[in-house]
Amino acid sequence: MRFSPRAIGVLAAIVTVAIWTGFIIIGRASAARTLTPFDIGLCRVLGASLLLLPWGLYLTRRDATAKASSSLGGLSPLPWRQTLMVGFVGGPLYAVLCYAGFLYAPAAHAAVLMPGSLPLWTAVLAFLLLGERFTKARWVGLACIVAGDVLVGGTSLLHALSGGEVWKGDLIFMSTALCWAVYSVLARQYRLDAVRATIAITAFAFCTYIPVFLLLTQLGVLTSHLSTVPWREIAFHMAFQGGGSVVMAGIAFTYMVKQFGPVRSTMITALVPGLSALGAVFFLGEPLGLNLLAGLALVTIGIMFGVRASRSAAAEGNAGGSVNLITKEVTP
User: Fold this and answer.
1) Would you say residue 230 lies in a domain?
2) 79 lies in which domain range?
3) Which of 163, 165, 168, 199 has the fewest CB atoms within 10 Å, counting from its CB?
4) Are strands 322-323 and 330-331 parallel, antiparallel or unpaired?
């Protein structure tokens, strides 16, 4: 049975949202566990590397006869420039910021500020870098999504104003969303293949994060608990953080961006904060408040506005000819 590109794109969106939601819930559940955020980051890189680096070597050797560009000794199937750009913002920088944020702010803040601010960052970058223009409906949709995400985590976000170091984590989470927005726009601009882009990110992380982690732990700058925890806990994080969050979600997200574009894709991921909060209700016993219900409603309305605006723009483009998504040139 063959599926259309759009059907595969929809499936990729479902996989991305499901894994990202699970990432937030597991992050909340793991907050009191033994491993440090940087330990989990190492498990993430190692788990993804075990699966993707052999794949990358296979692709570069297979394409050697076609003189395909590669880098990092054949581990990355992308050229040096693309590997460095997408690898830096989508690999170590994203992972370090993500896990470092949990040192200062609770996971509830991450659920709101990381996927919640992603559509806004992506819209701004797409406007500045790709020259995309948005209708009033698209801006209304973005405003509804941002308002809904603030309502979902409004109570916890207000606590950051009372002092302490929570605000540091909030800024880190916002920076994490900016990193992923940059990656999504770069993936669209370079028209990257989903598998090759994810392999390149993993190869870059393997060559940078692991040596730096080992150096800092040996110098005593970072504390690691990897030697004191059961292997099953390490194996779980390698499987979920590496195999799930990086491999499955990374490939699915990049394919979703290729199919739907960066702005629509990140608007779809705006479902993650509300779903994470609902998951916390069922799996972690957290209360279900009116702010959550109102926030979910606003996010849903915002996504409907955004998708409708995208379909209208696509229809106008098809009526006038084929549109180059990067340069916006119209050809007959």
Assistant:
1) yes
2) 5-135+163-288
3) 163
4) antiparallel
